[in-house]
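Quick log. Single chain, no ligands specified.
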Amino acid sequence: MEGAMSSETSQDVFEIEQPVISCKLNITTEQHIVNGIFIDFILLNQSDNDLSVLTWNTPLEGFHSNLFIITDQYDERLVYHGPMIKRTGPTAIDYQLIRAKGNVATLLDLSSVYDLIPGSYKLQLNKKTLQVIENDMPMSIYQCQTDTINFSVQ
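-> predicted structure:
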């Protein structure tokens, strides 16, 4: 019959691809300066394949660069007092393997490189890009998306 509408409707289905890798920052919201001010950094491999992540300029290598932007309650940025390392090209030992569906984590003491005194602070990652190799493919760049974290020092 001409002009009749079909009972079947066409729908476009869009799948949102989950990022291959994600980042998390965890910090206890109130910490005492005498014990150190610790932050936990976690990288999660959400893919079905092993990944290798370049650790340079990430919390995974420790403080060898200014890893975080920290501001105090007056929105003044804290100065980083740790080492700054310059290098040539990376080699295989500069990459951290993260197994499929696995994660790696590190714990860092912020008070070892930032002058923290009692007060309130905001923290975010300074460098948000990760260089990742998957199955010997060419390197890919991923964004490490984390929220700004609030914490206080007693």
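The chain has a mean pLDDT of 89.
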